[in-house]
Description:
Oligomer: single chain
Shape: elongated
Low-confidence stretches: 152-161
Number of helices: 10
Helix content: 25-40%
Mean pLDDT: 85
CATH architecture of the largest domain: Sandwich
Number of domains: 2
Distance between the termini: 21 Å
Order of helices and strands: EHHEHEHEHHEEEHHHEEEEEHEEE
Largest sheet: 9 strands, antiparallel
CATH class of the largest domain: Mainly Beta
Number of strands: 15
CATH topology of the largest domain: Tumour Suppressor Smad4
Structural class: alpha+beta
Amino acid sequence: MLVVNPMAGKGQAKNCLMDVIKVFSEAGYGTMVYSTNYAGHAVELARDHGGGYPVVACIGGDGTLSEVISGIMQLPEEERPAVGYIPLGTANDVATSMKLNRHPKQAAEDIVNGQPVYLDVGSFNDKNFAYIAAFGAFTKVSYATSQDAKKALGHLAYVLEGMASLPKITAYHAVVEHDGGTVEGDFIFGGVCNSTSVAGLVKLDPDAVGLDDGLFEVLLVRNPHNIANLTLIVNNILSRNYTNENVIFLHSSKVKFTFDEDVAWTRDGENGGSWRTAEAVNNHRAVRIIVKE
């Protein structure tokens, strides 16, 4: 089963589709192609049809992959197919974390010849997420940046939108419960992730991240109160230095956030809704994704 997002990669999916199908065909696979027509469509397709296939592959960005995984998560565990990912998006955090090939034909060959490995999947209140749920500074960037801007500017669109949001940074008071205890404070950013790359900009230390270890990586940034401290924090995070007193980095199998108000979240780069209480739970080794052998 091949799920195709025709809007991904500046609309390049149609240009590589036949090459991908040819690779699968030459390997002896019949391929049924499904095109997504609206947000959330890949969830429905994977849920309604994925159980009948050994492999559900997708051509698109991390959002498309996230939807496919969310659909597969609704199947009984014994019916969940392996997942193949041909990344054509802008940030491609999952592809970066799992070292997947960015060339569509080679990515298809890796799916045919590769091996499935387990991947943890997060539950966030009533939804699933593949690699991140976050609130605060910059989190609106990935879903607020227009498709036209993404197509025209690619990765730069995220950076520009992020810079434009700097004057609007707001701190949110939260109580954060995790495996090791509780943290309370005013935070300008909070992220629960299972990835070594966040929005293609922030790189977590691969040695500190296990994609199938049952643990999330949790990054919290306290309100720095002035632009100088904010600059220091940003520089530290970009250089993978989490020793700043305003930066908290920890591992946990579940995390609960309690706020004084409804707070907007992003889930795998899309609008994740607004919540006063938000809980993320790690579903250990919930799906299999095929990587290069």
